[in-house]
Inverse folding.
């Protein structure tokens, strides 16, 4: 008896959800950090606001921030779907299985999962080729370091982060054969206290350039306090720390993608897809290179950016060897997307192991 | 000058009522906070407390209350035994992680074999794992007199590192394209802690939580061990004279708390969560401490407090997505609950005197 009641109301709710589709398109966003993190989530939220601006009162957006990865995220997504969301963007890797689970229950709702690899008829994945930005960063870092020690704050040892480390390292070595990378794993995407600690440890170990793959501005503040340490904005411009210590940044620009996908839901053309855009498509931006960087270095970095954008150069171009000395890419060969997507090894020259 | 004076006989009625008063005061203070944020306070409070229970989509949220509350109750019951005896296990989060790792480890070791004995074995492994992790601070305390608060808390961070290592190495899904995280146990029928009745949220872990409530109640009220626990907490000297062995008590309280926390972790990893991943632990072990105190360290109180806490989580998320309340405001709201409870506790046990200067 009770079960029947539950099912009836479920059917009723689905009915409501379809009814809502008629007027406004409802768009949901699930964020891993607070919208004010100044990095990753902040940029996704800018994308959300851009959707609102683009479609005005034809859309309604909702978001929930600081959602833990796991069962809690599943509940948040279900909640949005029940309330008639037409498309839901889940913006962290750890939301992958929950997204798939919820998508099964709501075949009429479209899901977009950032940085994952599992798709379904109503689940698309999207990510940006952040490693292209890392190549530009590595070039600047290689020139700027005086101690030849570059510190790197990793979040989690997943392919996306390892790609970034490799790309930055390859290009730093290219311009400075003596450069060394020191890598600290924070095991968090957003934890200002941990990130600041990591930055301080790296600075104490002699690093005078800090690259970060975490979302807060805490490492920038730590570098500023130290005085002569160079940093780069991550995910967002972090221009409040410009012109120094922040000399440039990687900016994620999700707005065009979000606007396009929401538009596709509106006109019914949405389909399962796997999007991986870089500098050329505008999903990855390079924040203004400040005057703290010498003019010739800046020119070199911008030339690299242009080459990456027009496709004449690939961040992973051979000859390249893996850390263990085995051959990876031959002269002139470029890495294929499959290898890059699952990258779990360092290139030759990086010290330490990928955590296992 | 303000002075606190101990009440000779704290009112029993007042002591029982404080959690309710605390909830009420939290609603008022929280309402003011939401108002300061420019939201309608009545709507916000109603969204948090009413919507999950009686709102339009209550059919979905009510089962979720059990899913979210189950682990909280299970862990808090274990903690409350120790807290009553003055044994402070702050590391339930770590025991929860280890229980999950052991349970999932058993499942992954047998994958893809299907058999009825796998799940019971996982339960056993989960409980043993949590128990063993809690035995570290217990034995160190008994043998060397170390402080169990520090040791158990520090072991949380060790457990987190172990969890990260497992999701990246030993337990990583071989078909996961190099991404961290284990296989999803939800897709492995023999290991899946599914809902016992579909759509109710009632999984084995919730059932175990209810059973734990009953056992704890019987233990504390009808069993000599429960009497000893209470006696040690309320009058340690008297307990010693009565021949209560502190060593046995430490081992029992920490061990039970660890085993229950381990069970909670195992049921979570095999059910709602489904996989071992770096971010698997969502703070249940720490929130359970609040639940234990909110429930007055009484089994039935903990049951209610666990459900209330789950309600604020779920209602808080709804308030976020419906009204655009920031997550931090919800967290402040939850924090207020413990703050007011402790403050009111103080007023139950002490009375405030405005002493005249020099008169004292």
């Amino acid at each position: 008896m009770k079960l029947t009641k539950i099912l009836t109301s479920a059917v009723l709710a689905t009915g409501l959800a379809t009814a809502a589709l008629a007027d406004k398109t409802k768009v949901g966003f699930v964020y891993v950090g607070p919208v004010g993190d100044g990095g990753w989530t902040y940029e996704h939220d800018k994308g959300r606001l851009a959707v609102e601006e683009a479609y005005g009162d034809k859309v309604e957006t909702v978001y929930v921030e600081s959602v833990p990865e796991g069962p809690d995220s599943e509940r948040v997504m279900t909640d949005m779907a029940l309330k008639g969301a037409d498309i839901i963007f889940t913006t962290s890797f750890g939301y992958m299985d929950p997204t798939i689970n919820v998508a099964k229950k709501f075949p009429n709702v479209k899901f977009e999962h950032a940085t994952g690899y599992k798709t379904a008829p109503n689940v698309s994945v999207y990510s940006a080729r952040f490693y292209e930005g890392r190549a530009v960063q590595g070039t600047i870092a290689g020139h700027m370091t005086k101690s030849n020690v570059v510190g790197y704050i990793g979040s989690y040892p997943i392919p996306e982060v390892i790609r970034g480390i490799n790309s930055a390292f390859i290009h730093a070595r290219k311009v400075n054969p003596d450069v060394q990378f020191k890598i600290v794993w924070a095991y968090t995407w957003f934890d200002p206290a941990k990130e600041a600690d990591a930055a301080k440890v790296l600075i104490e170990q002699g690093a005078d350039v800090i690259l970060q793959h975490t979302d807060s501005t805490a490492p920038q503040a730590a570098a500023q306090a130290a005085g002569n340490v160079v940093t780069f904005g991550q995910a967002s411009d972090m221009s409040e720390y410009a012109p120094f210590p922040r000399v440039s940044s990687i900016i994620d620009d999700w707005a065009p993608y979000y606007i396009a996908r929401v538009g596709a839901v509106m006109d019914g053309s949405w389909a399962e897809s796997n999007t991986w855009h870089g500098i050329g498509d505008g999903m990855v931006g390079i924040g203004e290179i400040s005057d703290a960087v010498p003019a010739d270095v800046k020119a070199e970095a911008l030339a690299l950016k242009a080459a990456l954008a027009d496709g004449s150069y690939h961040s992973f171009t051979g000859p390249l060897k893996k850390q263990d000395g085995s051959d990876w890419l031959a002269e002139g060969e470029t890495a294929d997307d499959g290898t890059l997507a699952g990258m779990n090894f360092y290139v030759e020259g990086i010290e330490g192991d990928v955590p296992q | 000058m303000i002075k606190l004076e101990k009440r000779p006989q704290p009112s029993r009625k007042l002591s029982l009522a404080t959690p309710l008063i605390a909830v009420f005061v939290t609603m008022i203070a929280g309402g003011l906070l939401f108002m300061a944020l420019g939201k309608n306070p009545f709507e916000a409070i109603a969204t948090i407390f009413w919507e999950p229970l009686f709102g339009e989509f209550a059919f979905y949220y009510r089962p979720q209350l059990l899913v979210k509350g189950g682990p909280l109750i299970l862990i808090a019951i274990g903690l409350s035994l120790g807290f009553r005896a003055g044994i402070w296990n702050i590391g339930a989060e770590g025991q929860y992680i280890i229980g999950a790792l052991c349970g999932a480890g058993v499942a992954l070791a047998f994958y893809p074999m299907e058999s009825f004995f796998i799940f019971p074995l996982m339960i056993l492994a989960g409980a043993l794992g949590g128990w063993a992790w809690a035995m570290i601070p217990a034995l160190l305390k008994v043998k060397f007199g170390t402080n169990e608060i520090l040791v158990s808390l520090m072991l949380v961070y060790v457990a987190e590192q172990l969890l990260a290592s497992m999701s990246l190495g030993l337990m990583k899904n071989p078909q996961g394209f190099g991404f961290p995280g284990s296989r999803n146990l939800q897709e492995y029928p023999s290991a899946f802690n599914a809902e016992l009745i579909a759509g109710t949220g009632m999984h084995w872990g919730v059932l175990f939580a209810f059973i734990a409530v009953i056992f704890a109640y019987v233990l504390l009220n009808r069993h000599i061990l429960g009497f000893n626990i209470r006696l040690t907490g309320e009058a340690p000297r008297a307990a010693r004279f009565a021949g209560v062995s502190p060593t046995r008590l430490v081992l029992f309280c920490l061990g039970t708390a660890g085993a229950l926390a381990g069970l909670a972790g195992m049921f979570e990893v095999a059910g709602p969560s489904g996989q071992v991943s770096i971010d698997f632990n969502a703070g249940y072990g720490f929130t359970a401490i609040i639940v234990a105190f909110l429930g007055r360290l009484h089994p039935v109180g903990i049951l209610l407090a666990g459900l209330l806490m789950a309600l604020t989580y779920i209602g808080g998320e709804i308030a976020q997505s419906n009204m655009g309340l920031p997550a931090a405001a919800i967290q402040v709201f939850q924090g207020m609950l413990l703050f007011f409870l402790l403050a009111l506790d103080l007023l139950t046990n002490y009375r405030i005197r405005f002493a005249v200067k020099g008169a004292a």
